[in-house]
């Protein structure tokens, strides 16, 4: 059950309409499941594994990630989209990511202002620094770094389906996801 007074949500939609979000939903934190098999995919298939503070194993075990999230009652799931000439071209696709990250920072700020502490997860591994400080030194920007959604064991496609948020939005349309726990 929510511990957030309903007044805190007043005017939220109007404020959100100022951002180029494609779709969004507010879910109960309990709607989100944390799966060990997602972590298995990180470990066995993702080139980012063990290369950055925003990915496993640096983010902790799935159980620890789950505990961190469970301190919050709600999660705001949102997408942005970007059209590219050829979605199979990774360079083109990844070039659209920074715009989404910037919007994620702004949405995170908006939610902090309204609701207090947040925990925000975003797309892929953090790319703020050209070379991540991991593992030799602490993260240089812990206040701006968003761990990858999947690194927490969350299968974002399942969550999106639960929320009625489309994952495929056109042949050459990139869909980026973020989650703000609040
Ligand atoms: S902010 Fe820099 S040091 Fe921290 S996770 Fe991102 S790339 Fe690595």
Explain what this protein looks like in three dimensions.
The protein is of the alpha+beta class. The protein contains six helices and four strands. A four-stranded antiparallel sheet has the order 1-2-4-3, sandwiched between helices. The longest helix has 19 residues, at 97-115. Residues 52-54, 126, 128-129, 132-134, 139-141, 145 line the site of iron/sulfur cluster. Iron/sulfur cluster binds next to loops.
Q: How many domains make up the 3D coordinates?
A: 1
Mean pLDDT: 94
Taken in chain order, the helices and strands follow as: HEHHEHHEHE
Model regions low in confidence, pLDDT < 50 over at least 5 residues: none
Distance between the termini: 13 Å
Number of strands: 4
Q: Compute the CA-based radius of gyration.
A: 16 Å
* Helix proportion range: 25-40%
Main β-sheet description? 4 strands, antiparallel
Overall, the morphology is globular
Query: What order do the strands of the largest sheet run in, or round the barrel if closed?
Result: 1-2-4-3
Helix/strand-derived category reads alpha+beta
Which ligands, by name, code or SMILES, are bound?
iron/sulfur cluster
The proportion of strand residues reads: 15-25%
Task: Provide a count of the helices.
Answer: 6
């Amino acid at each position: 059950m929510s511990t957030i007074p309903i007044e805190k949500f007043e005017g939220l939609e109007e404020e959100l309409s100022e951002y180029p979000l494609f779709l969004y939903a507010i879910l109960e934190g309990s709607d989100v499941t944390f799966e060990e098999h997602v972590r298995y995919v990180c470990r066995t298939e993702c080139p980012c594994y063990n290369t950055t503070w925003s990915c496993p194993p640096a983010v902790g075990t799935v159980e620890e990630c789950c505990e961190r999230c469970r301190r919050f009652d709600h999660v705001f799931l949102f997408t942005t989209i970007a059209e590219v000439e050829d979605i199979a071209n990774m360079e083109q696709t990844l070039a659209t990511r920074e715009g989404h990250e910037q919007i994620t920072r702004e949405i995170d700020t908006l939610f902090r202002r309204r609701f207090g502490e947040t925990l925000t997860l975003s797309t892929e591994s953090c790319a703020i620094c050209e070379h991540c400080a991991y593992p030799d030194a602490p993260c240089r920007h812990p206040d701006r770094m968003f761990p990858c959604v999947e690194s927490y064991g969350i299968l974002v496609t399942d969550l999106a389906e639960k929320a009625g948020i489309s994952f495929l939005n056109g042949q050459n349309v990139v869909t980026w996801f973020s989650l703000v726990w609040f």
